[in-house]
Design a protein that fits this description.
The complex is a heterodimer.
Chain A lengths: L5 E12 L9 E12 L3 E5 L6 H9 L6 E6 L2 E2 L7 E4 L11 H6 L9 H14 L15 H14 L4 E5 L7 H17 L4 E5 L2 H7 L2 E6 L4 E7 L8 H5 L2 H13 L9
Helix pairs in contact in A: 3-4, 4-5, 6-8
Chain B lengths: L1 H7 L5 H6 L6 H33 L10 H14 L2 H32 L1 H16 L6 H8 L3 H25 L3 H9 L4 H38 L5 H10 L3 H29 L15
Helix pairs in contact in B: 4-12, 5-8, 5-10, 5-11, 5-12, 7-8, 8-10, 9-10, 10-11, 10-12, 11-12
Classes of the chains: A alpha/beta, B mainly alpha.
């Protein structure tokens, strides 16, 4: 098990939104959320759609504040957006008017960093994500998988304490997805990054993470925690081939009552 | 042409190309694609000019109704040497450009301001809509009453005419702004000013340039109307002067030169657009947004 000191800590977090109409009861997106993510640990959150995964992401990213409880990074409460959190969505969100290199520099431009240093950092990130030869291309000139890798490079360029991945592979075709999962897993394991992955894909969660949190909807809360306990975290393709991996997937399948759900 | 285009657009797909019989040899298709259309356009122009020169006299149409092409040419030379055509041309061209630039700057400034202040946009949107629909050129006589026979009335008409399509296009871009992009910048802890200049402004560029493209053609209309209703300089003035003299050739020549100014301005905006929007796969083929 990688390091134990918690990088990210949620304590009894709830988030309520005001009702749609005046007088309507507030809508509770998530409640009683408590979990830790340790240094270098890879934790996945799975759950049905509408279970508050996006709310969770916004809370950790500091784009939203909890109604109750605290979200803390290295013991310091998250009060607003901070450059210590890197997040990445299903959409690559590359700026189409910038080259790949300048897109990777984007996050660093919020800081007062000399242009030469920024460029150097961005180039190093591109090298780590094996995109050096695409540095001067525009987003429309590269493939979907390369774009997601560029988005990862941009996320990692700010050297975040924790990386949030919100379904980063779900818009890709099945083969690109597998290659990219392996790619990401290697980069993340190689750099000992603390990662929180939000996903629909059960086998993706098993293939990539140390620990899986199962969320349930209405309101969103954690109903189960699974220690994956498999080797080869840097090679998801090898991992899914193991018998224990398919056992966990089967278990998750039942835990989420996927067999009984009628409405998707 | 359509069949040639579809057959040629899939050079990599060998099997499809094999199944589909080639309708034209690829060399001929290429030739036709690169030279065919421009040659045909020139041919149309030649045919129209010849018909214009010889058809009206044959049908007994008098010169003061439709002057011949040769009359237009002779009148153009006369205007140049006796009527100081260059002065009128430069006046109209420079006022069009000035009005376009000022109208564009104001339209863009208001577009971004209203885009950033949604409450104000809601408050003002009925009036914006009303003013957008109102025929701005109809204000020209009013401005002459207010400001007299000088450059201001036509300049203000032009600014008004150019202002709205640009305002509306910029506002549209601010409305369809990708919230996730802004959130990404926020998550990186960027200041609001930086978010505006690094995300919102570049994001709105295609719309701004589409608005400018429309504005460039409207600017000439604004100036012309201003010159028609009052003033003693400009191609619009030549039109009203020529009308008073029953000099139809003069009117035609002035209209032709006004069109030249409009085309030059439109072309300049398109050239800038191609440079600025080089990062889009097909910036030039994009249809302009509605004003």
């Amino acid at each position: 098990m990688p390091g134990t000191s918690p990088v990210l800590e949620l304590r009894d977090v709830a988030r309520r939104f005001p009702g749609r109409t005046a007088g309507a009861p507030p809508f509770t997106a998530v409640r009683n959320l408590s979990f830790n993510v340790g240094e270098g640990e890879f934790v996945s959150v799975v759950g049905p759609s509408g279970c508050g995964k996006s709310t969770l992401l916004n809370l950790v990213a500091g784009l939203d504040q909890p109604s109750e409880g605290t979200v803390a990074l290295h013991g310091v409460e998250v009060a607003g957006p901070s450059s210590r959190v890197g997040f990445m969505l299903q959409k690559d969100l590359l700026l189409p008017w910038r080259t790949v290199l300048h897109n990777v520099e984007f996050g660093l431009e919020a800081r007062n960093m000399p242009a030469a240093e920024r460029r150097e950092r961005a180039l190093a990130e591109l090298k780590r994500c094996r995109l050096t030869e695409f540095a001067d291309r525009y987003p429309y000139q590269i493939s979907g998988g390369q774009r997601q890798r560029a988005a990862l490079a941009r996320t990692l360029a700010i050297s975040p304490d924790v990386v949030l991945l919100d379904e980063p592979f779900s818009a890709l075709d099945a083969q690109t997805k597998l290659v990219l999962q392996k790619n990401f897993a290697e980069t993340i394991a190689g750099s000992n990054l603390t990662t929180l992955l939000i996903t629909h894909d059960l086998s993706e969660a098993v293939a990539m993470s140390d620990r899986i949190l199962v969320m349930s909807d209405g309101p969103g809360r954690i109903v189960e925690e699974i220690d994956v306990g498999l080797p080869d975290r840097d090679n998801p393709i090898a991992r899914v081939g193991r018998p224990r991996a398919s056992e966990i997937v089967k278990h998750l399948f039942h835990a989420l009552h996927l067999g009984e759900r009628e409405d998707a | 042409m359509t069949t040639v285009d579809t057959a040629m657009s899939k050079p990599a797909n060998g099997s499809a190309a094999l199944q589909r019989p080639t309708l034209a040899p690829s060399g001929g298709g290429l030739w036709r694609r690169s030279y065919g259309a421009p040659l045909a356009s020139i041919a149309v122009a030649v045919v129209v000019l010849i018909a214009w020169q010889y058809l009206p006299p044959m049908l007994g149409v008098p010169k003061y109704i439709i002057p011949r092409v040769s009359d237009l040419y002779l009148e153009m030379i006369r205007l140049w040497s006796h009527e100081n055509l260059l002065k009128h041309f430069i006046s109209t061209a420079s006022m069009s450009i000035l009005g376009f630039v000022l109208g564009g700057l104001l339209g863009a400034a208001f577009g971004y301001a209203l885009g950033l202040l949604p409450t104000w946009e809601k408050v003002l949107s009925p009036y914006i809509l009303a003013l957008q629909i109102a025929p701005k050129v109809a204000f020209a006589p009013l401005f002459i009453l207010w400001f007299g026979y000088n450059a201001w009335p036509k300049l203000i008409v032009t600014i008004l005419v150019v202002f709205f399509p640009i305002l509306v296009n910029v506002l549209q871009a601010m409305r369809i702004m990708d919230r996730d992009l802004v959130n990404l910048a926020r998550a990186y802890n960027m200041s609001r000013t930086k978010i505006f200049f690094k995300v919102m402004l570049p994001f709105s560029m295609p719309n701004l340039l589409a608005g400018l493209r429309i504005g460039a053609t409207l600017a000439v209309i604004g100036i012309t109307v201003g010159e028609l209703v009052g003033g003693e300089i400009g191609l619009g003035y030549l039109i009203s002067f020529g009308q008073g003299q029953a000099n139809t050739a003069m009117v035609f020549d002035a209209i032709g030169l006004l069109t030249v100014i409009g085309i030059a301005m439109y072309w300049a905006v398109t050239a800038i657009e191609r440079r600025v929007l080089h990062y889009l796969p097909r910036a030039t083929g994009a249809p302009p947004a509605k004003p």
